[in-house]
Design brief:
mainly alpha; Tetracycline Repressor, domain 2; about 75% helix
Length: about 280
């Protein structure tokens, strides 16, 4: 998903620069993309290492929690990926190195003690917000472009969709393991009924906001429609899974969020590619 966000940042920036793909430094862009991928691998591996106990309690099924991937080996591979990410980013310039380093720091403090911000109600969403913004921005800057006002409308809505909707519904299926492993995310600290109603309202508001943005920039209509339809699906699943206990059921709102997230980004890529190709 982070790679798709990176690509969206690139495509939107290129399109808003009148589609001048000839001016994109593709060699440097590729190095930044590789760095971003490796940094993302670091963040997910180190998260799997630190969350292995909770994953087993929640029956998440990730390789480290299942015991299919040795913890020490995963930690070593994560460190190698982090170092390689910095090397690749440094070869693309100072800005790329700074952004990648900041991204790695966020991935580290999200999972690793004594920070472990993922275990807190607001630290986890704050890291998700920062990492998501950095990803779009890195994709744009690596291509030598930047977002216009329309691009920032899109990025803002998609960042809030990830931070306020995704980061919250993800925890609804993991309450048992979170409590047992000392995590206290929002889904643990706030009554379930209020979490579901709040997330539903925010999801619908974000979908509507992107469609309103389409009045200014018609190209936002496609992702706006996708997000609004997805928001209705998330809302429906939040209401129908209240009180559910099986993981397959409690995970349904997050599944709807993820499908919507991928569909929205793919719609952005399609709009940008088709528009530039004309």
């Amino acid at each position: 998903m982070f790679v798709v966000r990176f690509l969206c940042g690139t495509q939107v920036a290129v399109w808003q620069a009148d589609g001048d793909r000839a001016g994109v430094p593709w060699g440097s862009w590729a190095r930044v993309g590789v760095a971003w991928f490796l940094a993302t691998v670091y963040a997910y591996l180190i998260n799997g290492v630190e969350d292995a106990h909770g994953d087993r309690l929640n029956q998440v099924g990730r390789p480290i929690g299942r015991g299919d991937l040795d913890v020490d080996r995963a930690r070593l591979v994560a460190r190698v990926c982090a170092a390689a990410a910095l090397v690749a980013a440094a070869s693309a310039g100072g800005t790329a190195f700074a952004l990648t380093a900041a991204y790695l720091v966020l991935g580290h403090v999200y999972s690793v003690p004594p920070f472990r911000l993922a275990a807190t109600a607001w630290g986890g969403p704050a890291v998700v917000l920062g990492a998501t913004v950095l990803t779009y921005l890195s994709g744009a800057l690596a291509a030598g472009g930047r977002f216009g006002a329309d691009g920032w409308i899109l990025v803002t809505v998609l960042v809030l969709w990830t931070t306020l909707v995704g980061a919250t519904v993800k925890d609804l299926s993991d309450v048992h393991g979170d409590l047992a492993s000392g995590r206290t995310p929002l889904a643990v600290r706030v009554p379930d009924r209020l979490v579901r109603r709040g997330v539903s309202g925010v999801a619908l508001l974000l979908g509507a906001a992107l469609l309103v943005g389409a009045l200014r920039a018609p190209w936002l209509a496609a992702p706006g429609l996708v997000v609004l339809v997805g928001a209705v699906a998330v809302t429906h699943r939040l209401s129908t899974t209240a009180g559910a206990h099986g993981r397959a059921e409690t995970r349904r709102p997050y599944a709807a969020f993820m499908v919507t997230q991928f569909a929205a980004h793919l719609s952005v890529l399609a709009v940008c590619v088709l528009a530039v190709g004309r």
